[in-house]
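okkk here we go again. third time trying to get the zinc ion bound version out, last two times i messed up the smiles copy paste (missing a bracket lol). double checked this time i swear
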Amino acid sequence: MRKGLVIDREAQMIGVYLFENKKIYRGIPRKKVLKKTKIYAGDYVLGEVVDENTFAIEDIEERKNFLVRPPVANVDKVLVVMTLKMPEFDNFLLDNLLAVYEYLNADPVIVFNKIDILDESEKKELKRWEELYKSAGYDVLKVSARENTGIERLKEYLKGAICILAGPSGVGKSSILSRLVGIQLETREVSEKTERGRHTTTGVKLFPFGDNSFIGDTPGFSSVDALYFMDKKEVRLYFREFLRYKCRFPDCTHTKEPGCQVKEAVKKGEISCERYRNYLKIIKEDISIAKDLCQ
Ligand SMILES: Nc1nc2c(ncn2[C@@H]2O[C@H](COP(=O)(O)OP(=O)(O)OP(=O)(O)O)[C@@H](O)[C@H]2O)c(=O)[nH]1
Ligand SMILES: [Mg+2]
Ligand SMILES: [Zn+2]
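finally!!
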């Protein structure tokens, strides 16, 4: 059987990208497949080419992860796009997003866009945030979609991966996508009005680019609450740098317990106060706990 990737899922239309010839077919799932599961963008499918335009889907591979909003499977990397300004950098939103994508097992990486508009002191400030997140264990890339800087490196970095753009409105997600894919796309509306007049995400389109890489856009948002996805007690597992330390109690919440190595690390400057403070904010703990550790 041949292997393809569902890159477009809209109502009854299933777009399948076939790896061996990089052509896009209309996917028709066999009944037994439909019985097993729904089909989403990001699903790896096995089947046969029936004619020039049609691919019969015989089977779907098991998903390694699934993002609910937008519904897309097998995401290798989430590009969390941020800007230092326009819009103003919001590290609380970033830390929530990082925790959520860690939780969904979708490997978040940080992309700072609009570096073209920064003056010297702002560049220094960005450098500080870059170092902070790198030492927490995240890859950080800096780009300008407008001036096309850093895009080639980003393309290289995403080789062979299924990626999703995420981040607040106006940071340049769609602009980055256009640069990566190499054409000015009319990005399809990903939301549609329900009868109540609310917007809901119905699908996502993955665009092939480079060497079997795929990227999908998402609409922006202004806030995300990690506790919508996970329990308070779990948040500590999705702050990457915390996992380097072994506290006296294995279920230590890094708040008031004795023998907490995470707090010790904050005190020594190995874990940043900004990250630790946001952790406390996310779990709705008293942030004065951080006061004694950070001056
Ligand atoms: N100066 C500068 N402006 C940029 C850059 N990238 C995007 N912009 C501008 O920022 C604005 C928002 O860009 P979009 O790509 O629409 O942002 P988005 O993240 O897709 O926004 P939503 O779809 O609302 O979530 C547009 O006016 C872009 O022209 C950049 O690298 N530098
Ligand atoms: Mg957009
Ligand atoms: Zn602890």
